[in-house]
Input
Amino acid sequence: MGKSIKAFAPATAANVACGFDVLGFAVENPGDEVTLTLKDEPGIIIKSITGDEGKLPLDAEKNTVSLVIQEYLNHIGSNQGVEIELRKLMPLKSGLGSSAASSVVGVYALNKLLGSPLKDEELLPFAMEGERLACGSAHADNVAPALLGGFVLIRSYEPLDVIQLPTPDDLYATIIHPHVEVKTKDARNILRKEVELSKAIQQWGNLAGLIAGLMKSDYDLIGRSLQDVIVEPVRALLIPGFDEAKQAALDAGALGSSISGSGPSIFALSKGAETASKVGQAMKEVYQKWEIESEVYISKVSQQGPRIIE
Output
């Protein structure tokens, strides 16, 4: 066996209310960890996966982390053998970009292990292929922030044009993951195929306002803009307690709150750690009342994507 490396990639909240499929941000925790070891003979082997309750395939052709590594090796024309140990430090099917974190951490770690033949941003198309395997479409609103950190806007998919946005210093994210299941496929199928023009105008006004708020560090503007008039009203029906948890977050001082990705997790953005903490407590109390277990994660919007762990 050859040299090995250990890396971490963060969870992400996609859509961010008004930015369906084009906006996402990274958090400091939770996330995924991977250890890669170079083998003397070709082939990719998944040695172990922990933290997934045995739900993820160990078959290298069916797992996002190994698929992305294979795509990367094909691209650089290498038949280097790799052994993978994956630690899932976040819940699956939670709306927190679980498959994105695995895809990103795998390709990032291998690129570093091989002496960084590609720049970090050049790894994005490989990570997107992991999303295609996981949920049927190669969207970038989770993988881009997981790879680049902070808030990321996908201006265009064809051609791919991804823009990193500045984040105000005191912006904190609170994420609650209630233990209910929402299938990504269901969350996509429930959406209407057409949108009223008046709603579309409201939505793109909010998206532009949110981006302006981030760039100007205008917390009030961020709060006014965190509104989704197209996707959230439909998807909220799939998440028990959503309306109540969102209202509790706002009452506790959050700037705004919405569904993280396709749910069931719910995110809130706040100014300052103290408010973010109160928001988490308020949302948790709602789910205690519903007798639904939940985890709360509080962190700054993470400016760092993946990192090597010593």
About this structure: Residues 4-165 form a domain with the Ribosomal Protein S5; domain 2 fold (CATH 3.30.230.10). The chain is about 35% helix and 25% strand. The chain has two domains: 4-165, 171-300. The mean pLDDT is 93.
